[in-house]
Amino acid sequence: MPISEASGTPASPAATRSAFVAVDVRSAGDAPADTIGERLRAELPELDGVVAQVGWVRDVPGLLDPAAPPAPAGPRAVSLLVGGIGGTESSLGVLLREGARREASVLALVAGEPRGDQGAWLRALLAPVLEEGYDYVCPAYGRHALDGALNTGVVYPLTRALYGLRLRQPLGGEAALSPAFARRLAADPDWKRDPEAAGSDAWLVAKALAGRVRTCQAWIGLQPRHAAEALDASHVVERVLGLVFREMERHTDRWQRVHGSEPVPSSGEAPAPSGEPPLPPVGRLAGVFQLGQRELAEIWSAVLPPATLLALRRAAALPPERLRLESGLWARIVYDFGVAHMVRTIERRQLLRSMTPLYLGWLASFANATKGLDPAGVEREVEALCQAFEREKRYAMARWRWPDAFER
Amino acid sequence: MWDKTKEILVESLDRMQQALARLLPALLVLVLILLTSLLVSVAVRATLRRVCARLEVDRRAREWGLVAPGRRSHPSLWVERLGGYSVLAVGLLMGLSAFAAGAASALSVRLIEYVPHVLLAVVILAAGIAVSRALERSVLIGAVNMGIQSARFLGLGVRWLVVVMAAAMALEHVGVGGAVLPMSFGILFGGIVVALALAVGLGARDMVARSLEKHFGRQPEAPADEEEKEEDLRHM
């Protein structure tokens, strides 16, 4: 029940540092701002703080008054109603605006979903900014490689190859920012130029990595499960890769100058993921891939070069349990779709959705390749995939410069 | 005899001369109108070319599936030609009417009045074909992602549904077909819908059954292991 000025405690007059934490709520009925406020008080008692609830919460009675003076008095929960998922009214947009107004020493965006008892995760997220002067902290979570396969198969290797920094889970939906970086982001022209993308995870990560701000990674426990995860693969592929490819286009001049990759400073230890690793239904995934290869070949032929199409035809002819898409081939496919997205070879939503069978085929292939491997073995496979993305970057650059080179 | 022949020849030449004198102004008008329409046609083509380039018609047509991917087709060229030839056709009809021959003139006037209807019908048909191709691709991709085996058939069905509808509208607009048209359209439309229903029913029987059970609250039969696992899979 996050009501304005609900659970305030008097501020210590000597306190000089404050935090502004925005809790991204995606389902009504939760009261996460109160919970996060309690956690902030427990984990960082020396800090003044304001915890605000942002997101699609239409039944919250109290609104944060924009005219109210910024008078933080210890961690307290306030409510804040916003109505958009992009642009200045996105969760990140509100975080930047309110954080700057309150002159917070650290700004954080956290998910509202319950996490259970995971130790001092909030401190782990905020401390690198407060104590070590980092500008951007990207959280990482203990997860199985196939839990969040789009991250493992595309987002992580692609981000790493493009920007040269090894952020393990770039689009976690949470972040901590320094006030300087927050001011820079708030003044970015993209809020007006491209409001649909500005404020998204991919936009934030690309701004941090391409802008060479001091970035680190913090292991903060297990990832809270979002309700939005119920979406099917084609929706996720369209939404996530659409944003990632758009940033790829925006930062062309930056990523074309980057070669190789290096680890980012990390804090904390990667926790062991809970439960059994997910076992993807290889038969069904391979079935969709084979169907796609049969029916979408005409569309793919506008995006992929003939050699890739031939390799896909050969892969589709294999039985599901032996399906294998070689890492280099998969990297080239991802880059080709990035190029097609840039030149709008076909309508962008259709283009991204037509990539779903390929992604499911890769997932089946990766599940086959990692079957029976221990976590270290799986991690070696992920590393090999990332290196393939880095190797094939030359191919991406060539295609980017001459996108029509292979057309018939 | 020679004098008589000469007289007839002169009379004949006189008659030809008079006929030519009567025709010449009209002929001159025809040539002038044709030349003017040729110039207007060139100007219209140049304008259309520029407008199409500004609006990126070729790229958009490729993006929306109006032309098959990979083919070197240029819809802007079709638009340009359509505009140019339409102006020439109108010019020719106007030129013919300058002869003032009753029947020819009336025919020309009727044809000129008909041209806008024909042009609009062509636009309706072209828009219908464009929409049908975009919808076909969308349905095809969606069906493949859902694992429906008859995805191609579904896409084609939707495409022809829209094409048939657009063709019926275009024909009705130019006044061809009369009462037969709505009836034929109804039969064709119904046939395609039945075919699509069969395609969905046969190609995605299991999926439809599961969906109905989920929506109407019936307990589904024990799902296969793979389906259970799939619901547990997180992509991000």
Characteristics of this structure?
heterodimer, A: 408 residues, alpha/beta, 17 helices, 46% helix, B: mainly alpha
Give the uncertain stretches of chain B in residue-range form.
219-224
Strand content of chain A: 5-15%
Number of discrete helical segments of chain B: 8
User: What Rg of chain B, in angstroms, do the CA atoms define?
Assistant: 30 Å
What percent strand of chain B? under 5%
Shape of chain A: globular
Amino- and carboxy-terminal Cα gap of chain A: 61 Å
Which radius of gyration of chain A do the C-alpha atoms yield? 22 Å
Shape designation of chain B: elongated
Spans of chain A with pLDDT under 50 lasting ≥5 residues? 1-15, 58-64
Biggest beta sheet attributes of chain B: none
- Most extensive interface, chain pair and sizes: A-B, 43 and 30 residues
* Main structural class of chain A: alpha/beta
Order of helices and strands of chain B: HHHHHHHH
Give the terminus-to-terminus CA distance of chain B: 110 Å
Structure description:
The complex is a heterodimer of chains A (408) and B (236). Chain A is an alpha/beta fold. Chain A has helices at residues 32-43, 91-101, 121-132, 149-163, 179-186, 190-193, 201-210, 233-250, 252-255, 282-295, 297-300, 306-316, 327-343, 348-353, 356-370, 375-391, 393-401; strands at 18-25, 48-55, 76-79, 106-111, 136-140, 165-166, 175-177, 215-219, 262-263, 266-267. In chain A, the strands form two sheets. In chain A, strands 3-2-1-4-7-5-8-10 form an eight-stranded mixed sheet, with helices on both faces. Chain A has a two-stranded parallel sheet with strand order 6-9. In chain A, strand 1, helix 1 and strand 2 form a beta-alpha-beta unit. In chain A, helix 4 (149-163) crosses helix 16 (375-391), helix 8 crosses helix 13 (327-343) and helix 13 (327-343) runs parallel beside helix 17. Chain A starts with 17 loop residues before the first strand and ends in a 7-residue tail after the last helix. The model of chain A is unreliable at 1-15 and 58-64 (pLDDT under 50). Chain B is an all-alpha fold. In chain B, 82% of the residues lie in helices and 0% in strands. Chain B is built from eight helices and no strands. The longest helix of chain B has 54 residues, at 2-55. The radius of gyration of chain B is 30 Å and the shape is elongated. Chain A binds chain B through residues 146-151, 155, 171, 225, 229, 232-234, 236-237, 240, 278-281, 283-284, 287-288, 291-292, 295-296, 298-299, 301-302, 344-347, 350, 353-354, 356-357, 407-408, and chain B through 59, 62-65, 68-70, 134, 137-138, 140-142, 144-145, 147, 149, 151-152, 225-227, 229-230, 232-236.
